[in-house]
Specification:
With 202 residues, this protein is mainly α. Helices cover 84% and strands 0% of the residues. The chain contains 7 helices and no strands. The longest helix has 38 residues.
Length: 202
């Protein structure tokens, strides 16, 4: 059996680059403080994403049996954290503080890392991509690590792109009402993501 390259790449691209908690929050932080200052958050996402992918790669069959038991806890924990991010952007939308106020680098890294650990969509994505495409073909742990790194790298490219878009919008739209609208839209999209996470999986 060989890897189905085109379906694999199509699935990875679709899930990774379309709007979701990682991409939306990265764009919001990019608009808030630019790419460089958002980088610790992006690195936190990258590391957390890699760890989740590595875990699902190494134990996808066992995790597939365990996840149904943990699903309610993971759903509510993930939804709560995404809702917390939505609250952050809603505060920015209605705050009179400077939009570019910098957050602590360690705090930003931890926020990005935690988002991956509690994000049920990332876990389901890892289980799906390894169970359907990778594990039936490869068993070598080193190769699985490389795939985990590749998937985390794709995620980093995506969030970097979304952060750069947010930073570009910040330069073009210096008008505060437009920025507030962007943060409010980000908050609403994240709330939608949190609500969707609580719905039954198809």
């Amino acid at each position: 059996m060989t890897l189905q390259v085109l379906p694999f790449i199509t699935y990875v691209f679709t899930v990774t680059f379309t709007p979701g908690p990682n991409n939306i929050s990265s764009a919001g932080f990019g608009m808030e403080q630019g790419y460089v200052k958002t980088l610790p958050y992006l690195l936190g996402i990258f590391c957390g994403f890699f760890l989740v992918m590595l875990g699902t790669a190494a134990a996808s069959e066992a995790l597939a049996n365990v996840v149904p038991e943990l699903l309610p806890i993971l759903k509510y924990a993930g939804a709560a954290y995404i809702a917390w991010l939505a609250w952050h952007f809603a505060k920015k939308a209605f705050s009179t503080e400077d939009f570019g106020k910098e957050r602590g680098r360690k705090s930003a890294f931890a926020q990005g890392l935690i988002l991956q650990v509690v994000n049920i969509k990332v876990l389901i994505y890892g289980l799906t991509v390894f169970a359907l495409f990778i594990n039936p073909v490869y068993e070598n742990i080193f190769i699985l690590m490389l795939f985990s790194l590749f998937l985390a790298g794709c995620s980093f490219v995506s969030i970097s792109l979304w952060t750069a878009i947010g930073g570009s919008l910040n330069r073009f739209f210096s008008n505060s009402p437009i920025k507030r609208g962007f943060f409010l839209a980000s908050s609403l999209l994240l709330l939608y993501s949190a609500a969707a996470a609580l719905l039954p999986q198809p």
